[in-house]
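Colleagues,

Please find the record for the three-part complex below.
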Amino acid sequence: MTAPALTTLRRTPLRRLAGVDRLAVAGAVLLGVVVLAALLAPWIAPYPGDGGSATHPLEALLPPSGAHWFGTDQVGRDVFSRVLFGARTSLLIAVAVLAVSGVAGVVLGVVAGYAGGWARDVIMRVTDIFLAFPALLLSLALAVVLQPSVTTVIVAIAVTWWPWYARLTASVAASVATRGFVDSARCLGVPAPLIVLRHVLPNSLTPVLVQLSLDGGGVILTAAALSYLGLGAHEPTSEWGLMVQQGQSLFTTDWWVVTFPGLAILVTAFSFNVLGEGLRARLSR
Amino acid sequence: MPRYLIRRLGQAVLVVAGVIVLTFAIMRLVPGDPAVAYAGPKATAAELAQARQRFGLDDPLPVQLWNYVRDLLGGDWGTSLHTRQPVRDDLLQAFPASLELVGAALIIALVVGIPLGIAAARYKGRLPDLSVRLSSMLAVSVPVFWLALALQTVFASGLGWLPVAGEYDASLDRTSPLHLFTNITAVDALITGNWPILTSTLAHLVLPALVIAAYPAGVVAQMTRAALIDESARDHARLERALGFGETAVLTRFALRPALNPVLSLIALVFAYSIVNGFLVEAVFNWPGLGRYAADSIRSLDTPAIAGVTLLVAVLYVVANLAVDLLQGVVDPRVRAR
Amino acid sequence: MNLISVRDLVVRIGDRVIASVPELDVAAGECVALVGESGSGKTTTLLSTLGLVHGADVRGRIMVGDVDVLTASPARLREIRGSRAALVMQSPQAALNPTMRLGTLMSRALARHGVKGADARERAEEGVRAVLLDPEILRRYPHQVSGGQAQRFAIALALALGAQVVLADEPTSALDVTVQAEVVAVLRRLRDERGLAVLLVSHDLALVSTIADRVVVMRDGAVVESGSAAEVFARPSDPYTRELIAAVPELPEAVPAPPEPADLHEGEGP
């Protein structure tokens, strides 16, 4: 196999990703806003102290106004500030889950796909078992037996999420492994780990990256659900699911306490989905 | 086909076995002593020892696993800590209500999602397509518990158009008692001609079913669209056009059937996902299904009950997947020939 | 009168001309072959006669009978597709909807053109028999018939719909040599006995020499040579045509006999 063929194979998928898809751009911009809000929360929040345990009993449950854009909650904290700080919690969880499960899944998937044989069989059967649980279900079961916390949420979701990447990577890696340039590398005596690192891994990565961005929304929703059920973040952390849970009995009277955190979850999950969908459309073209 | 079937069945059995082991492992992760949880914090040492013996907690882990599997197969799914009833009975009682709710949701999802997917594929790249794609992405991005609260607040508590919670108006049990056959209220009411309970159940179903339907409807619309676009670019679609059929006819009368194949195989996944989404929705609408049972169990850290629900849903998922594989033979004659 | 008459056809995608045909006529009982390598624009020319070229700018004048394809309404265009000129595609099984029995496709197509009930059944069976297939084949799915059967069924569709021209796009290139001969024999017989016209697209000069009355040679979207088949094969004027002809090992002289009817056992599916 000649050198030019090898480099084109290795470069095209990522270069195609860089091409512009309007949907992907819209998703990226929306997500960028959320990320900025999370990063800058301590500086742009009108009442930074309200992201934590501050209480202002005299200002409890004020409707949205110029002073409090999203109103105030049961203990008088500014809901807008808490929504901004909540972005930190949600994105932290999403990034941590995707990083942990992505790395674990890709490593196992590449091993399974490249090595084949019994290693592949064992890894794929274990993957099947984990995939038999809907993500929220297994995270729920895990979160119940662990102590409720943000770390618990990350661990519980990551445990249910890696098999998807393992399966995806395995199938891509298996097809990459049969391509000519890998064969020729093997014939030239290049050691297996080097082949995997140089050829199999880079070629398997693009679909996983697209899947990761598609899954960000799912992770955000699952994390919010766990917190809503009281299995995740707890007071005084700003977390959107938790805010909905704490305010749910007030929905009829003080709608803003629940509406804005819920909208924040919706917008964040939506931006991930739009971005992922745009990338996927781009890639499959 | 038989050999293919046997292989699929073997795979399913293997996965169920793995699911049991994994559930067992999770439940043994529990910090603290299950015996304490059962006997209560004020139990005496003797009571604790009795509880430990009863649950076999002194045995080595493999023995415990073996006993667990043996009990499961023998129909003993443990005793719920919060209802103090056999978990199996609780599940059997709660499952039909969940099936009713998720069934209704999936019907809504298919009825809404497939036509939207067709419309998007028909007007690909134009306004109808963009709006279907965006709205289906919204539908899969909405947090269900929040949507449940919002719809309940607006349409039930606020406008009073629909009932707030429950499966049907409980006072009807006195005026027109329901005879149970399938334990699925709507079905039983229909076959026994119990109209008051049927209409009440349907009214109670609308909001929770709509909330649960959001996710599958979005997925079905996207999948239908993608599969139709794929199918209408194939050679057979060109021949159909050359036979005088217009775009709409090619999509609905020819491309739809092969395109439904991937949509159908998605339904199994979506079914299990929807049952779990029901966990969040049933609690809000006080729907007497698995979800409310699970939510109650979570609140009281009732591990045997949670293990039971987890196991049931995972097994359901495996079975649903199998069923879909078989169904695919009906839709696609090529699979039958395999 | 010409069944198909093309004048000054130019098909562009962006600035690139993908097919340019100054003149192309197909009369009843005549087989005209468009010859050239892939990318020469022959399939585009074929599809443009049915108005089936999408995403390209099509100019000129294309008449199918008395219908001007480029100015006709979409509804009128759909009416003539299949009923006047019918397509036979390259890959026989992929061209048939996998979820549909052949008979279902046939009856839907007939109903589309206003033929229903007993009349439709009769036309379907008559069409299938005319290509030497057993009407039993109508009960089968595409994966249950051989490539040759599928291809003959496509011709039967055209006959049942009353098409006077068959537009055949590489109809034999996906088939074995013996099966190719069958399909060609069927086309020849229908041309001779019924006056069916054939517009054939092919890169296979050996095939073309066995059936074509006239030949149009295309290269890079342009016509380089055209004339009667005998003339073009005997005295090619264009160097490209000479090259094409030289590449054929030997042009067969004998034509295989048409297959016997009811030869369904020949292929029980893939």
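The CA atoms of residues 57 and 64 of chain B lie 7 Å apart.

Comments are welcome before we finalize the supplementary table.
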